[in-house]
Write a structure and sequence with these properties.
Blueprint lengths: L25 H10 L14 E2 L11 H7 L10 H14 L8 H6 L5 H9 L12 H5 L3 E4 L2 H19 L6 E4 L4 H9 L3 E4 L3 H5 L18 H11 L7 E4 L12 H13 L4 E4 L3 H11 L8 H10 L3 E5 L10 E5 L4 H6 L1 E2 L5 E3 L1 H13 L9 H13 L3 H20 L13 E5 H4 L10 H13 L1 E2 L1 E2 L12 H4 L5 E5 L7 H16 L6 E6 L11 E5 L3
Parallel strand pairs: 1-12, 3-4, 5-6, 6-7
Antiparallel strand pairs: 2-8, 7-8, 9-10, 11-14, 13-14, 15-16
Helix pairs in contact: 1-19, 2-16, 3-16, 7-8, 12-13, 17-21
């Protein structure tokens, strides 16, 4: 077949809704910053030019998702979307290329009740991560929630309660390749010790010319450190091993399938449940497909099915790789290692207390009936459709190349500290290098960078370093595991090249005037859990 190549990318989508950006002066932004105590989360979004604070729930949904919202069923018990969402999760995370797609049956407004009963309402599933039918009632293992933070809170609150009942006053260690801020905050609140085990030297390495031939999977768990830690503290003191895919804390870097498999094997060797923080599961699968040997010809869904086969359970904010504005999930394998470890059994082996029942009680009492878990029926349908969008290779390819465009733009502009290659959902800059290693950990200079970027240019980013990750409150051992970075999150399907070019120009200008970026100090909320969401700050001179 004849081809007629061009030296430009073929368009893959177009926008038919436009939102204008207001013109805001530096003086107006200064006033707002002062009034909100220089807390970037409190700064009014309506005064920003480009908002890159987070990619969580900020997605511009597709026409297919908006159409699906009209099919939302707001029934309080067993709304139609409940069945669709659970089956979309099975399709995207377990079935690989053998998807059932009951969402298409619902889209046709099927009136054949026998067919709906046989294919939707009364289907029985057990043995995997998403029980269905009577099994989901008898042994609940899937919990719909409105966001990932709620899923983490439900999980860690119950784990804390069970561990305290069994071992009063005992502290536990939960290792990860990189706990994100909310995960780490929840672990700390349960009285346990979070540990981040990765290769920082590899993370900071800059490839020749700014590009690797193949992504080196800088988000991997350091499996040697993992096994050493388990042996050092004792397997009985490690209730869970947690792996984040992609590794948000470690600059959005991906994790290889080989590393996921090996980390799972090490955890299981010591009888420890292996869990995933799977907020960016699809992006991680993309990196595996493009960069890891043996996966080039596999679909995103097939790679996802293998990835989830290695875990005993997972939490996920589906406001990321659900391509949706709302949604979260907690799930564990039916009768798997997590269930075995945290359920109680009688002497004859029968179940005394099922951990899934306890989780369901917490879900219902705090977030609503298990059919919706704090979500509206229309959001459930948008999320169901969005999960399939995230299995689309072309969408993922466009998104991840957009991240790399921004990273390369910084690099080519001479900005020091850009983490290369870009992660799957954003670009990170190492603040130590950005400031020529002249700012101490007590200066929170990354937060000063973030505030100054808002003040001068109306660009909001997220400081994920010394301030947010609480460097000053950590032990010397934990301090070594902190990345002092600022993140430029790229909202899914929303930003144009024009936005990115504006951000590149602004960061270049700020870098060239970095000596005049103020340091920051905390004036209130220094020891609050997850302090960056609500602490007060003020700038002070850096000299």
């Amino acid at each position: 077949m004849k081809k007629y190549p061009l030296n430009v990318e073929t368009p893959r989508s177009f926008s038919y809704v436009k939102r204008n950006i207001p013109r805001v002066t530096v003086e107006q932004r200064e006033r707002a910053l002062k009034a909100t105590h220089y807390n970037e989360f409190a700064f009014p979004a309506g005064m920003l030019t480009v908002d890159m604070l987070s990619d969580s729930g900020t997605t511009a949904m597709t026409d297919v998702q908006w159409a699906a919202m009209f099919l939302g069923d707001e029934a309080y018990g067993r709304n139609k979307g409940y069945y669709v969402l659970l089956d979309a999760l099975r399709d995207c995370m377990e079935r690989g290329d053998s998807q059932k797609r009951i969402i298409d049956l619902v889209r046709t407004d099927c009136t054949d009740i026998d067919k709906m009963m046989d294919e939707v309402y009364l289907c029985e599933y057990e043995g995997g991560l998403f029980n269905g039918g009577a099994a989901q009632m008898e042994r609940p293992n899937t919990f719909i929630l409105q966001q990932g933070r709620a899923a983490e809170s439900v999980l860690f609150e119950l784990v804390r309660k069970i561990l305290n009942q069994r071992h009063p006053g005992k502290a536990f260690t939960i290792p990860s390749n990189g706990h994100f801020d909310t995960t780490e905050g929840n672990i700390k609140q349960m009285g346990s010790i979070p540990r981040n085990l990765y290769n920082k030297q590899l993370l900071w390495e800059v490839p020749e010319g700014g590009k690797y031939e193949k992504n080196p999977f800088k988000g991997n768990m350091d499996v040697k450190k993992l096994e050493e830690l388990i042996k050092a503290v004792g397997p009985e003191n490690v209730p869970l091993v947690y792996m984040t895919v992609t590794n948000n804390t470690v600059c959005g870097q991906p994790v290889s399938m080989a590393n996921i498999r090996e980390s799972s094997q090490i955890a299981h060797k010591y009888g420890i449940p292996f869990m995933l923080d799977a907020a960016r599961w699809a992006e991680n699968c993309y990196f595996i497909k493009v960069n890891e040997e043996g996966y080039a010809d596999k679909s995103i869904a097939a790679i996802s099915a293998e990835m989830f086969s290695y875990c005993d359970g997972f939490t996920a904010s589906l406001k990321k790789d659900g391509h949706a504005n709302m949604g979260g999930i907690l799930a564990f394998r039916d009768k798997g290692l997590f269930w075995q470890k945290f359920s109680d059994f009688n002497e004859d082996g029968t179940v005394k207390t099922d951990v899934g029942i306890l989780l369901k009680v917490k879900q219902i009492s705090s977030y609503g009936n298990d059919s919706y878990g704090g979500m509206s029926g229309r959001d459930i349908m948008a999320l169901s459709a969005g999960l399939y969008e995230c299995c689309n290779f072309d969408y993922l390819d466009e998104r991840i190349k957009q991240c790399e465009y921004l990273a390369q733009g910084f690099y080519k502009a001479g900005v020091k500290g850009v983490v290369l290659p870009a992660g799957g959902h954003g670009v990170y800059i190492n603040m130590d290098e950005f400031f020529d290693n002249k700012r101490g950990h007590d200066t929170f200079a990354g937060q000063g960078f973030s505030v100054e970027l808002i003040r001068r240019y109306g660009i909001r980013v997220s400081e994920l370093g010394d301030y947010s990750m609480e460097y000053d409150l950590k032990t010397p051992e934990q301090q070594k595991e902190v990345c002092n970075v600022v993140r430029f999150a790229i909202n899914r399907s929303q930003l144009s090249k024009e936005h990115l070019d504006y951000v590149i120009a602004a960061v270049k200008a700020l870098y060239e005037d970095r000596d005049n970026i103020p340091n920051m100090r905390i004036t209130a909320g220094h020891n609050l859990p997850m302090r960056h969401f609500h602490a007060f700050l003020e700038p002070y001179p850096n000299k």
